[in-house]
Amino acid sequence: MPTINPTSPANARLLANVHPPDWQNPTPADRYNLVVIGGGSAGLIAAAGAAGLGAKVALVERDLLGGDCLNVGCVPSKTLIRSARAVAAARNGAAVGVQVGEISVDFPAIMERVRAVRADISPHDSAARYRAMGVDVFLGEAQFSAPDYVRVGDSLLHFKKAVIATGSRPVVPPIDGLAESGYHTNETIFELTTQPQRLAVLGAGPIGCELAQAFQRLGTAVTLIDMADQVLGREDREAAQIIQRLLTEEGIALHLESRVTRVEKEGDETVLHVDQQGATRQIAVDALLVAVGRRPNIEGLGLEQGEVGYTTKGLVLSETLQTTNPNIYASGDVAVPYQFTHMADATSRIVLQNALFPGPNQKWSDLIVPWVTYTDPEVAHVGRYPHQLDDAGIAYDEWRFALDEGDRGRADAIPTSFVKVQTKRGSDKILGATILSPHAGELIASLTLAMTNDVGLKGIASTIFPYPTLSEGIKQIGNQYTRGRFSPLLQRIADSWFNFGR
To answer: Is 398:420 a contact under the CB 8 Å cutoff?
Structure first.
């Protein structure tokens, strides 16, 4: 039986929804149209969608319904970040003429709010809700016992189609002494009730940067360590460098091109031995957060009995998300490299189409996928990066607008921010876009919509955007394209026309 730490009324409410202690698994149907293994975002979408279409569905979850996103990912992290941003806004009030006195951070209250928000959202992912939809919810370990059977405890589930939606988990690097010294991942960091005075974050990817900035703003002295030469190593380099500068300006001790070689426990302290380009130093902290990546959960599923192929990297899948067993599919983190809740949603919808209905199969590689890193400012991206276009030999034009120099950016006193769009050379077709800005995650949606529906910069230029908003910067990109099409010849013709008209 899963437990949720710490013991609190909010966590009790959460557990009652996502893994009720008194839950009784139903009697299996003779055969299911779809058996879903994993009750995270991908599995819940698949189960709800199939049941809504009238299919007989079983959903199996061994831990907590809602998966990573609800319990240890998106929901708790963004709730914590909201508190941290409130602290930053108060501290930076002088920039807009507001003087704030001493700021007091109540860390236990912040963490209790994290747990309360999570519990408040949990009815959406609850076992009772899915039972009410007509889904047979089984809590327990799922294992294929044959190519068309899944065993859960004493229950045997016969299926026509199945989907593996078991998600992913944090990678823990093989560092000498790490396991013995103790560490946190995203799966345990939200259990904290006492604020660490010093926190080391191993990994400067999205999770590492988000939580490093949040804890620093709340008053923890944060050290951020990564082997790469920049934070957000997979992100647009200009955006990453600006985030890197802002993180250091906020007081985070940043150690790039660095490798932790050993971890030791000395009393209440955790001591990290760090090699930085041949120089060795020791960093003592009160807590350590490991955020160096994730790996798919495929162990213990009886994949051999299910005739599902896999490698050390994960499941063997086609672009239609079909495994080597033609009746078994996969979706979400376990299936694709884009490990986002919205991608779990999108891939599960593809699985429903491909597994349950005849007709041409959809490919996940055709999806246009946006993503966001929730630092402050946020970094949002959709489509291809310039280096990817270069590698593919695709010629492109780049358009750029400085949001901090726009009217709303000046009024809001936002930090260095921009929207940057790449288009096919000589065309208005959008190939990729990056936004660095407050609320970049909201802004990227319009460019994603444009790309998905093949609307180019001409269409954006002809669209009315409200003034004054940050989103107007996207229209400015469209206007740049329109002005760029006004060739010298057209300018001479226009000049002649207006001279004639006078």
So the answer is: yes
Note the pLDDT of residue 484.
82
DSSP 362: P
Average pLDDT, rounded, for the chain:
96
The residue whose two tokens read 């086609």 is 318
Contacts of 283 (CB under 8 A, 6+ apart): 200, 223, 225, 255, 271, 272, 274
Instruction: Give the range among 65-69, 127-131, 178-182, 490-494 with minimum mean pLDDT.
Output: 490-494
| pLDDT tier for residue 236 given thresholds of 50, 70 and 90 | very high
Burial of 210-248, coded b for 16+ CB within 10 Å and e otherwise, reads bbbbbbbbbebbbbbbbbeebbbeebbeebbebbbebbe
Q: Is it true that the peptide bond before 6 is cis, omega within 30 degrees of 0? A: yes
For the domain covering 178-292, report its CATH number. Answer: 3.50.50.60
Pairing state between β 396-402 and 155-164:
unpaired
d(C-alpha 43, C-alpha 36), whole Å? 6
436: its two tokens: 């660095």
Q: Of 415, 421, 386, give the one whose Cα is nearest residue 401.
A: 421
Place of tokens 């589930």: 157
**CA dist list (Å): 336 to 166, 308, 321, 360:** 12, 16, 9, 20
Q: Which amino acid is at 356?
A: L
Q: What is the length of the chain?
A: 502
- Cα distances from 15 to residues 117, 416, 501, in angstroms, run 13, 42, 76
10 Å Cβ neighbour count for 480? Answer: 16
Concatenate the DSSP letters of all residues of 61-100 into one string: ESS-TTHHHHHHSHHHHHHHHHHHHHHHHHHTGGGGT---
- Per the CB < 8 A criterion, the answer to whether 464 and 403 are in contact is no
Strands 136-139 vs 57-61: parallel, antiparallel or unpaired: parallel
Q: How far apart are CA 459 and CA 304, in angstroms?
A: 51
Phi first, then psi, for residue 339 (nearest 5°) are: -95, 75
Check if 9-170+295-366 and 178-292 are the same fold. Answer: yes
Answer CATH for 9-170+295-366 from 3.90.1640.10, 3.40.640.10, 3.50.50.60, 2.40.30.60: 3.50.50.60
Domain-wise residue ranges, the chain? 9-170+295-366, 178-292, 377-484
- Prediction pTM value: 0.95
Cα–Cα distance, 445 to 440 (Å, whole number): 9
- In this structure, are strands 328-330 and 155-164 parallel, antiparallel, or unpaired? parallel
Query: Which CATH architecture best describes the domain 377-484?
Result: 2-Layer Sandwich (3.30)
* Per-residue confidence band for 495, with pLDDT thresholds at 50, 70 and 90: low
Amino acid letter for position 367: L
